[in-house]
Write a structure and sequence with these properties.
Blueprint: E1 4-8, H1 12-24, E2 28-32, H2 35-44, E3 49-53, H3 61-71, E4 77-81, H4 86-95, E5 99-102, H5 107-123, H6 156-169, E6 175-178, H7 185-194, E7 203-207, H8 213-221, H9 238-241, E8 246-250, H10 257-269, E9 271-273, E10 280-282, E11 286-291, H11 295-300, H12 306-312, E12 315-318, H13 329-344, E13 350-351, H14 353-361, H15 367-381, E14 387-388, H16 395-398, H17 435-454, H18 459-466, H19 470-480
Parallel strand pairs: 1-2, 1-3, 3-4, 4-5, 6-11, 6-12, 7-8, 8-11, 13-14
Antiparallel strand pairs: 9-10
Helix pairs in contact: 2-3, 4-6, 6-7, 13-15, 18-19
């Protein structure tokens, strides 16, 4: 039996065109051009899904979804609109809309989402056709990525992030991704590319933080043979490699002012020349850039071109740090453990409860990257068939008290209990002990720990504040590490 779809939109032409297209795809459709008429039709007949505009003449999408949910709590709603507003999208998804897409519509995308919606409905339906008891608000949206290496968190911060990704992915907007180191900026950029219309074209990533002024132009735009000393042959640049697809520029704020000027011209004209070449090449790329510093602040300080910033800033997304999504830590532990055990072909029996409490309390300054590496290390050091214990944890995790450091460390889940595992080294008194030296060592330890906590365990910043080089700081930390730690 064909599925019945109700289309509610005040754009008569859109209703007609979309209705005809869905008819060709085997759906039955009915239309309404106001929210009130749509609600009335929905109450009179049974529909498998509703497609509605967010801004109608007599009500907005939030009111409409609430009215539809009041009549049938499990109704699947797809919201369409010409406005890409983040707060609106998050509110709509929280209200229970299945998905949210922007105009102009891509008919095949609408059909794909509808099929996904209806498949989810079938999964929660019993064999007798009755809906199983379930919390409608807990219904999951369509997976944001089919990549098995992608973990889709369910914390409020993660869901808000994915809502923004879904909104902007179908557009050609340039995007700035903000986030601390290790929050997964390249993963999100790749996910946006995979969800876009360019997903059959290249995704090319480039780390601008490692490039000198001399090399940046060659890496971005390529060069011709003989353009400079060492240019022994023609080189294809990242713009050319990404033509038709997406170019991701990480740490874009590190580009020199000269390269920024060239980049601006390329973005404006959609043309470029290889370094040392005369031939202009046309290019069509979508730009996603990332930075762990505020580019708006950078241009105000004269470190970044304001006009280039506005070219990039058609849409911006802030990636939450791991400490702001503590609800994801336990499922992330299982995810990273399964990856690590498969990687080295080792079976372990689980993880101690006190280690999980350590994970929940730690501030994770390195975010997802640090978390993954900690799990990989722990799996490597754990004997086959045994549980992961605190002995496999790095010193900075078990030896740090992560409270009271000015960072947002509060536990957002009242069901999770946090425990303190920190103990400071004791001064041992004995005839053969240098008590004064031990006391000075303890004071130095406490000072270093205090500074590390205040800078969220950023060792580079800590070394600068302590007025020692980073190598000296590492050596001191190593010396403080208790003998029974790995």
């Amino acid at each position: 039996m064909s599925k019945k779809i109700l289309i509610i939109d005040d754009d008569v032409d859109l209703c007609t065109l979309l209705g005809n297209y869905l008819l060709k795809k085997g759906f039955e459709t009915e239309t309404a051009h106001t929210g009130a008429k749509g609600i009335a039709k929905f109450a009179d007949k049974k529909f498998d899904a509703v497609i509605c505009d967010y801004r109608l003449g007599d009500m907005d999408g939030k009111e409409l979804i609430a009215a539809l949910k009041e009549k049938v709590p499990t109704v699947k709603v797809l919201v369409i609109t010409g406005y890409s507003d983040i707060k609106t999208a998050v509110e709509i998804i929280k209200l229970g809309a299945f998905d949210y897409i922007t105009k102009p519509l891509i008919p095949d995308e609408v059909v794909s989402i509808l099929n996904n919606m209806l498949q989810r409905s079938a999964e929660v339906a019993g064999s007798d056709g009755k809906v199983k008891s379930a919390d409608p608000g807990a219904q999951k949206e369509a997976p944001i990525s089919s990549d098995t290496d992608f973990f889709e968190g369910q914390s409020p911060a993660a869901r808000a992030l994915y809502a923004q990704v879904r909104i902007v992915a179908a557009t050609n907007y340039s995007i700035i991704l903000y986030g601390e180191s290790g929050t997964g900026k390249e993963v999100i950029a790749r996910t946006i590319h995979q969800m876009s219309q360019r997903n059959d074209q290249p995704f090319v990533a480039m780390d601008c933080g490692t490039l000198s002024k001399e090399l940046a132009g060659s890496e971005l735009f390529g060069h011709v043979k003989g353009a400079f000393t060492g240019a022994l042959q023609d080189k294809v640049g990242h713009f050319e490699l990404a033509n038709g697809g997406t170019l991701f520029l990480d740490e874009v704020g590190n580009l020199s002012v000269e390269v920024q000027a060239t980049l601006l011209r390329v973005i404006q004209e959609r043309k470029f020349r290889r370094v040392g070449g005369n031939k202009e090449m046309e290019v069509d790329v979508r730009l996603i850039v990332a930075s762990n510093e505020n580019l708006q602040e950078s241009y105000r300080k004269g470190k970044f071109r304001e006009d280039l910033y506005h070219r990039f800033n058609e849409f911006s997304i802030n990636l939450p740090p791991l400490r702001s999504r503590r609800e994801d830590i336990l499922p992330l532990t299982e995810f990273f453990m399964s990856k690590a055990t498969a990687e080295i072909n080792k079976e372990i029996s689980g993880i101690d409860e006190n280690v999980l409490q350590i994970f929940l309390q730690y501030s994770w300054p390195g975010n997802l990257r640090e978390f993954r590496n900690v799990i990989r290390r722990a799996v490597l050091l754990t004997k086959p068939g045994s549980k992961i214990t605190a002995d496999t944890m790095p010193w900075e995790i078990c030896g740090a008290n992560n409270t009271g450091n000015g960072y947002p460390e509060a536990n957002t889940n009242p069901d999770i209990k946090l425990t303190t595992t920190t103990t400071l080294p004791q001064v041992n008194i004995g005839e053969d002990k240098d008590i004064l030296r031990e006391a000075a060592g303890k004071a130095e330890y406490e000072t270093i720990m205090s500074v590390l906590q205040q800078v969220n365990f950023n060792k580079k910043k800590a070394a600068e504040l302590l007025k020692i080089d980073r190598k000296t700081l590492y050596n001191k930390i190593k010396n403080f590490q208790p003998a029974n730690k790995i």
